[in-house]
Amino acid sequence: MAQNFKKIGVLTSGGDAPGMNAAVRAVVREARDHGVEVVAIYEGYKGLIEGNVKVFDMRDVSNIINHGGTILYSARSTEFKTEEGMQKAVATCQKFGIEGIVCIGGDGTFRGATDLSRRGIPCIGIPGTIDNDIASTDYTIGYDTAMNTAIMMIDRLRDTCESHFRCNVVEIMGRNSGYIALNVGLATGAAQIVVAEMPFDEERMFEEIMLGKRRGKRHYIILVAEGVQGYAEALTERIEKTTGVESRFTRLGHVVRGGSPTLRDRVVASRMGITAVDLLLEGKSNLVICMHGDDIDAMNIEYALTLDHMYKGKLKPGELDKYSLLDIQHMRSYCIKKAADFKRLYDQALDISQ
Questions:
Q1: Pairing state between β 192-194 and 123-127
Q2: Are residues 37 and 118 in the same domain?
Q3: Are 188 and 180 in contact (CB under 8 A)?
Q4: Which of 98, 108, 237, 250 has the smallest CB count inside 10 Å?
């Protein structure tokens, strides 16, 4: 049943991601098109607790679709994790007439959205993180831009590697997920890709580097996902010692989070923003917007978080108790398929490496 909203809020939380501004723009424009005011909440849940808000009109979101980062800023809030902090956030909503919120961010953002929904503030989540590490969706805002930024930088590294007969071991962001490293490795023709999700044969890599050396190969790019913590720098030293190929370590770092969003991130963010507002105005709550294939749909946030825990092997005791056997079967099938898709892409990347 549709709800007669007069004012909704929008916030970004967690790590920034290119395309977040496009999502904010879509939320504001879609809500205004339905005669609903939008309150911009600065610095995520911290700003919601502190009342750091401003009513946005069309001019506030003009010329932001091409900007990276988030104009609403982001901040961590340990206070929001407490009941007292949540009640302060609810009080802010009551004070400023915020009747529902679109929350843009990662899994921490979604947990906060669930907490608010339980306390009478309807929330819809939009997945915004470069890591693409939310199991319930095939795609998260910022992922495509981050990969394209990484590709551009690694292509430049390859030029100098070729000139000096070197190996570059590149650590790339993605938190505990190897999606960025895997796809960028495939796209840049990396000699090897190291991700936490797949076993890695270091000795075989040494053999392949030496085989390439005998064939006259002058450059090697080894991509290591940051989820394989503390590995890349030590690997660099071992490659040079074992193969005799001069090796350098490069950490791309947070630069892959910045920059103007790609077409895909702008379009997906806009579609997700529109869908989030429409669902909220229909009276829906506690949902996360997801992308499966080219379709935009929605999933219960708590179900999505449990699915994410299952996929990552982080289920808590009793977490599945509230779900039916059919639900659990669907979750397991979904996780099996997602893992199989990742492995297939990894195997294909290795097939054409070297």
A1: unpaired
A2: yes
A3: no
A4: 237
Per-residue model confidence as pLDDT tens digits over 204-244 = 999 999 999 999 989 999 999 999 999 999 999 999 999 99
Element (H, E) at 124: strand 123-127
Q: Which amino acid, residue 93?
A: C
Both structure tokens of 119: 């306390």
pTM: 0.95
Question: 98 and 181 share a domain?
Answer: no
Q: How far apart are CA 1 and CA 190, in angstroms?
A: 52
Catalytic residue selected from 131, 133, 144, 308: 131
How many angstroms separate the CA atoms of 17 and 67, rounded? 10
Token readout for 114 is 């669930």
Residues 96 and 201 in one domain: no
Nearest to 286 by CA among 307, 274, 304, 268: 304
pLDDT at 288: 98
Beta bridge partners of 56: 38
Domain assignment of residue 240, given as a range = 145-258
Instruction: Give yes or no: 131 in active site.
Output: yes
Is the domain of 50 the same as that of 124? yes
Query: Same domain for 107 and 150?
Result: no
CATH of the domain at 65: 3.40.50.450
Rounded Cα distance between 27 and 8, Å, is 10
- Classify residue 338: in a domain, yes or no: no
Residue 110 forms part of a structural domain: yes
Number of domains in the chain: 2
pLDDT digits (tens, 9 = 90+) for 33-82: 999 999 999 999 999 999 999 999 999 999 999 999 999 999 989 999 99
Q: What is the pLDDT of residues 101-158, one digit of tens each?
A: 999 999 999 999 999 999 999 999 999 999 999 999 999 999 999 999 999 999 999 9
Handedness of CA 327, 309, 285, 86 (dihedral sign): positive
| Closest among 126, 177, 130 to 150, alpha carbons compared | 130
Q: Record the tokens describing residue 277, joined without a space.
A: 């507002």
